[in-house]
Structure formats: structure tokens, C-alpha cells
Amino acid sequence: xxxxxLLLAFFSxxxxxxxxxxxxHNQIGWFSTTITPAISxxxxxxxxxxxxxxxxxxxxxxxxxxxxxxxxxxxxxTAHIGYAWIETYPYGEYALSGVPKQFPEHRIYEQLVVNxxxxxVNLMHRLRLEQRWLGRLHSMASEGADEYIYLNRxxxxxxxxxxxxxKWFAAAYDEIFIGxxxxxxxxxxxxxxxxxxxxxxxxxxxxxxGGFLNQxxxxxxxxxxxxxxxxxxxxxxxxxxxx
Length: 243
Description:
This protein is mainly β. The chain contains one helix and eleven strands; from the N terminus they run αβββββββββββ. It has an eleven-stranded mixed barrel.
């Protein structure tokens, strides 16, 4: 009886919490290209651009450019440091920003990637720390960022790659984003991404993958004293070039 009462209490709290949410559903399409030029046996560059769209491909969601440097400590362990420039656009019913206009973000980040092959299957763990400067607009009359707010964020992503024959593979990942620091708002849980993909590896220099993407985002602010969650579903296509 005690366990039953605890279970009923848990579901009651969950229902009340869900009722205090505002949900925003969007259809997204993400396209990315990553180029990794070798500098030495252990050092390589990183150039990445992501073209993120709302309404699958019709409207802007986000533009993201990353540049960085990789250092391979071990055949299975790689460290990375980089810079990202992001432009986020108003999309969906509830914009990420309180002023529904395009806003910039500058980001420095550090990450560690560990590969754990098990036979032909590869399990990858990626831990990333981000130092973010988000542009804030004070009004619709603002032509650009009126100020920048500093935020911290941690990200962890496990990913599994399973070969299908010589050239094809299946992949799945789940990435969690956690905000922290004095300026974090409602979104200590910032977002979660789930990807299910099929890929083709032509050779060691080129591969492409695509499939389903689910993105859950919590806004950093409340609307009418309620948390806002975006539930974004769509597709993703990634291309990789290694030189």
C-alpha cells in the first residue's frame, strides 16, 4: 500500500508539472558540413558549418560556424578547443529571446572525445564545456545586441556506430545539455537531442549520414509564470571530409 501511495503521488506531481508547461512543436531540418584538415600526426584543424532550418527547410532556425583544433593524445582519445559564432532567429510560437528578433552568440568551448570500440561496433563519449556570450536585445527597435550575457553549459553525448556491410552503418546518439552559473535562468536543463541515422562511408576521407532528429529545448524564461518547452522533430544530414 505504501508503494502504491508513493507511485500515485509521483504521477500526481508529474501531471501537475506537465500542466504548468507551455509546449511549442516545430518541424526542423538540419544540414552540416565538417572539414578536418590534418596538420601533423596528432594535430588537425576543425571547420564546421550548420545550416538549421524551421518548417523543415523553409525558414531560418539557426546558423552556426565552428573552428577549432584537435589534439590526439591516444588513438582513442582526442581533445579539442574551439570558437563558435551563432545567429539564432525567431521561430515557432514562442521565440527563445524575449524580444522576437535575430540575436548573436559567441562561444568558446573545450571537449574530450573517447572512442571505445567493441569488436566492429564503436561507442563514442563526448564531453563538452561551453563559455557563451549571448546577445540580448532590449526592444524591437534594436538593430543588434544591446548587451551580452555570459552563460556556462555542459554537454554529454554517447553515440554508437554499428557497421552494415563494408560501406554502410547505423548510428544513434543522445546528447544532454545542462546550464550552470549565476546567469542561468529556468533552463538548468537546457535541451536534449536524440538522433537515429543511416550513413555511408565512401573511404577514410568522406562519409555522409542522415536520419531522424528530436530536439527538446527549455526556454530560459517563463511566460505567464509557466515554463516553455520546444519539441522539435525533423531530419538531419551530416557530411564529413577528412584530409
